[in-house]
Fold these 3 entries.
Entry 1:
Amino acid sequence: MVAIHPVKLNKYRKTITILINIPKGKMKMLLKKPLTKVITASLLTGSILGMGTLSETVVHAASTEAATSHTTNQSAINTLHDIYNAADKGEMPGNVQGLKINNSTKKDVHHKLGDPEKVDNQFDLYGWEMGQPGYGFAYNKDNTISEIRNFGTGVERQTNLGGITPDLLGEQLGLADKILKVPGTDETDYVYKTGNYELHFVIGDNPVIDGFDQTVNHVNLTTGTNKTHLSSGTAAAKYLKHQLKMDNNEDIVFSDMGGDLETDKTGSYYTIKLTSKSMQKKGGTGTVGLYKVYQDGTYKLKN
């Protein structure tokens, strides 16, 4: 693949066109890798610039830098608000929008994004590519999404996560609900509650420059700490026992009947059977109730 780069110089410089011959396979590889160095080449024709010209060049450069900085900052602000607004629905914006915490499954993720590039502990990882952010997905025991992690982009990172600082978070979102230290690292976690979910803006090493620059390393979207999500029949049985204030009752046994997840118009639920041991000893079935316990914590007697 041939990349054509026209370079327009001032009156003391010539306009040239640089042709860089990059093999097609290499071009994709370069786009996927994080930027590590920026090399600027200045091609002069041999004239020595006077002080007046130098001053003009510096002023123009400063003006251009200021305009670029303003644009970059606004892009970072837009990214921040997009993330915050989508989080209220349990989603991340962009090409992963529609994949929802505690609702969409691993199968949904793979259908939308393909197979992960890497699986690291509990996370399916997708690298940044062609200006799209990298993502990680963790799952509950029932294979619904428990956490979405946004790693930002590698190219022009300053227009997204690389442009978000603690000061910008405070200016745009107000004070964080919690500020935590990430154990075993020098990272700081700024936590914002949004609806039933939480956004964790983790300030840490910039993965592009490989250095600590007080910008967001990644953003985690999780279920709020007060939000109930039951991901197994065992958890549902324990939850129901507590809700019915029968934690210390030694007669009634709570059984998840195999722990199968079923669905009705209300949502997904586990069937919990309550059995009395004393009634069984008298020759009866001992069944005292069947409950539907939904994943969000609501429950009702099963007809």
Entry 2:
Amino acid sequence: MASPSASHPMEPCQTVDPLWNLAKTEALRLCRVYEEEMGIMYPVLELSELLDQVHLLYGPMDRTIGQGLHSSGQNGLDLWWGVLLWQEAKLRRDHDADLNLQSIFYFQMHEETLAWRTIGIVERMYLEKGLHRQETLDQPAIVAEGKDRVLRLFWSIYVLDRRWSFGTGMPFALEDTDIDPWLPEPAEKTPYLRVMIRYSRIAAKVWKFISA
């Protein structure tokens, strides 16, 4: 009987940043696409920070693997959401922001139930931190992060919860009665979000009225 062939040792798996599948110019373009498509409505991330992360990752050279990927349309945006999630989680180690992005990503992938479920988790985490109360805004950690940024995050999550709930028919994760009436709204530089907060409040009352 022939002896078994010698097994070849497994080559070590190289870990490569998935963003390098995109050309640097394409990565920068998709950052701006994200801002135009979602960031302007739900200011969870700062465009300047995203662009800085891309420049930091690529450095002065465009380290594209192979021929790179020049995407267009929904497929390219879906891919960008995936690598954006991974990169945001790696650089910021911010679990709240990571889950927030995951919720938006699920919506982009037409998984509205998963989007609703994930944003509900984020809202409950914010409730645990007391971000629905005005007095919490004076805590040192909130001041260090920036009150305006925290308010943008909280109200973006509030609006997203309403949007996913209306789309799926599922209940809200956070009721208006749970929110401190003295909690300020985001600054004037986020006009869409401010309008959507008021729209969501009215729509929630109408929905409860017709569902009663």
Entry 3:
Amino acid sequence: MLFLIDIFQKYQELIKLRAPKSFHLPHPDIHLPHLPHLPTPHGFLPHFIDQYIHSRWNHYFLQCCLASAFLILLLLIGDTLKTAIVVGIASSAFTIFVVPNSVAATPRKVIGGHLLAALVGTIIALLLQSPLLVEIVIEKRYLLDIAAALSVGIGIFVMVVTNTEHPPAAGTSLGLVIQCCQPSAGVDWSSISFILVSALLLSAVRIVLRDRMVNLL
């Protein structure tokens, strides 16, 4: 009997020797970063009215008036029936006069974006005006809508590849394709001229007045 007890005790000691010792990883001291102090909105109705308008009201007033005056001039010269194109130029004017220091307001983006969008829209419009497609497009309006949407997508791709991204230029290709099946077929030189002249004038105004304008956003 004592012999069995002795064997059992040795067996327990052997198990204890083979059992792995517990290993505890030290807990690192985690320091949370200090969040930056955000300024408290101030001024009259700060959650509804821009808090900087009190100190920059002259910039707000001047730049909005310039945008309106520029568009009045363009609309008096251009064809106001081409809605998509006019909306695109109006959006460019918004970019120039509201965020003049943004990347999208640089001459490369404004002129290059509208130029490439006009090129894409003109190519697709000429394809739709070919004898094989023009009758089909006139009968099935949805094909024209698909082509117009594709012109926007292709224009965006070309602008991204050439680093001339200008969101308002999407209206340029859209407008040129939508009106391509009207009775006056061919290249719409009047619309293209209106687009390019507008882009050039907007860029020139930004270059001249950039030091006197600020971002309003």
